[in-house]
Amino acid sequence: MQASNRIIVNTVAQYVRTILNMLLSLYSVRLIMGALGVENYGIYSLVAGVVSLLSFFTNSLVGSTQRFLSYAQGRGEEKRLKSVFSNSLLLHLIIGLGVVIIFAAITPLLFNGFLNIAPERLGAAKVVYLQVIAMVYISFVASPYRALLVSRENIVYTSAVDVMDGVLKVGLAILLTYVTFDKLIAYGWIMFFITSFNLLAFAIYCHAKYPECIFPRLKFFDKQYMKELMFYTGWKVYGSASIALRNQGLAIVLNRRFGSAVNAAYGLGAQISGMVSFISSSLQNAISPQLTASEGAKDRTRMWFLANMENKFAFLLLASIGIPTLFEMQTLLEIWLKVVPKGAWLFGATFLSMQITDMMTIGYGAANNAIGRRLGRYTAWTYTPKLLILPFGWLLLHLGAPLWTVCALMILIEVGCMLIRVPLLRHEQGFRLRTFVVDVFLRSMPPVVIGATACVVLYLTIDASWRFLLTYALSCSLFLFTAYRFSLTAQERSKITSLFASLKAKLHRR
């Protein structure tokens, strides 16, 4: 199968996986919110968030390891693959242990007045904190295995594990309603069990399937590679840390201003964005390995082609679902949850708008990672401004500004960070600004305008509980039709048409 067709097949597979996981996640959160209550859910979102900000670090480690594995595969360096994986796993084990020690040491600081938690729930909150620390270490260890699967473009297995993760969350969430002891602590153990299951599923499969998947060995220790990986990972972690500190730092600012109840709304908003963003991340997982391999093979033309393809398709995929979701956020929350925390729709719309904005140039981040030059400058310029929301958000709230002004500022800052990516890459060989403006930005606008217009018309003319069904049906249909007609090039339309014709023929033969 040609590489371009494989990208489409992998994207479709992950898209289906994402829809299933989103539905499972929506249902499990409804059950968990009902079992825990708003206050306990807010405590879990706050306490787990303080440590779970490190999940951004593990995502960075996955991206770093996948980059070096894909680069080696693109250069045909099969022997180096064992060294890359062995050293990566060793580095993850060491970093994870250091992180556990640090966060265990600051436990007294967090729970002696820094976090605004009711005194009668402090004991349970401390237990949850330790549970999440253990989960973070497991996630560190699992990162190289997930990176290997991504670099090998094994979409089927990763999708199966992710769907099983969602099924387990639903099943165990149902059991949570029958728990007789502290439900908050029980929920922490449920999440710990699921995290452990994911590690075992990835590790056992990789060791059985791929020869480069080995435990750390002295003979494969490569000091130069470790330095390169640490440098590369350091900047990736800086970028992820900026997002994590922005998200969790603002959660703490809100907690100290409004209490833990607002953290339930904030946590739900972030979770809504995360669930929807999996739609575009599925495309990134399908394209990034080939993009990096192209750079490793010195095929810069194809690398930029894939980067612009990722920009456009990631934006269109997320916008197709995100736009109607923005208009029907409150209705969906009321259907989803028995009790909707005040402000959940505002945070959900904010995070989702930020995600859609970010997708417009997301492929250039992957391109810069593949090239590997000026990584520090690029990361500093595109991620540091995200932290501005902390001082300015605190100042706005301190001056008595309404909460929506903080959300508006978050979106404006994200727009700025998205736009900065383009001039930072203008000097790289093969980059064409006109290609981005014409083939990505301008081609992406028609479906956005048509889809949003349909949502506005329905929102203003129909006031019924079932309106959200019509909004999704009409908006998504018009969006996809317009995107196929105006956003895709003739070559892209031809490839998609031929692929679906091939799949139809295979199904007909069966």
What can you see in these coordinates?
The structure is a single chain. The protein is mainly alpha-helical and 510 residues long. Helix content is 84%, strand content 0%. Helix 1 runs antiparallel to helix 7. The chain is globular. It starts with a helix and ends with a helix. The mean pLDDT is 80.
Please give a handful of descriptors for the protein shown.
single chain, 510 residues, mainly alpha, 19 helices, 84% helix, globular
**Low-confidence segments, ≥5 residues, pLDDT <50?**
none
Helix content: over 70%
SSE string, helix = H, strand = E? HHHHHHHHHHHHHHHHHHH
What's the helix count? Answer: 19
If you average the pLDDT, what whole number results?
80
> What structural category characterises the helix and strand content?
mainly alpha
**What is the number of E strands?**
0
Question: What gyration radius follows from the Cα positions, in whole Å?
Answer: 23 Å
Overall shape: it is globular
Terminal Cα span: 19 Å
Report strand %. under 5%
